[in-house]
Amino acid sequence: MAGVASIVFLARLNSAEGDIGEAMTLPAIAAVLIGGASLFGGVGSVFGTFIGALILTLVLNGMNLLAINANWQPLVTGLIVVFAVWLDMHGRKRA
Predict the structure, then answer these.
(1) Contact 49/35 with Cβ under 8 angstroms?
(2) pLDDT tens digits for 21-52?
(3) 7, 31, 41, 92: which has the fewest Cβ within 10 Å?
(4) Using CA atoms, how far apart are residues 39 and 28, in angstroms rounded to an integer?
(5) What is the CA radius of gyration of the chain?
(6) What is the spatial distance between Cα 34 and Cα 20, in angstroms, rounded to a whole number?
(7) How far apart are CA 40 and CA 70, in angstroms?
(8) How far is it, in rounded angstroms, from Cα 34 to Cα 55?
(9) Cα 62 to Cα 73: distance, rounded to the nearest angstrom
(10) Backbone phi and psi for residue 20, each to the nearest 5 degrees, phi listed first
(11) CA distances from 64 to 11, 41, 51, 69 (A)
(12) How far apart are CA 29 and CA 37, in angstroms?
């Protein structure tokens, strides 16, 4: 799937670089973590990842609509990841 996605992305840009998708790694990891997968081993689901990506997209789109500087968006994404990991750790302690 990563190969197919790279070909589609290459077709859209009409150019290629080795690190062209580097900026997409944090949102991809954040979507999986928000969707319920654990960094400490566990099982995630495709539906959970879809919901996580939807939530993250809504937050980032809201920041764009509020005209918040684009340099702050990775910070907010990172804070959401930290919060998701904290919730996972807190849930593991209770279980």
Answers:
(1) yes
(2) 777 788 888 888 888 887 777 777 889 889 98
(3) 41
(4) 13
(5) 15
(6) 24
(7) 31
(8) 8
(9) 11
(10) -70, -25
(11) 26, 34, 20, 8
(12) 10
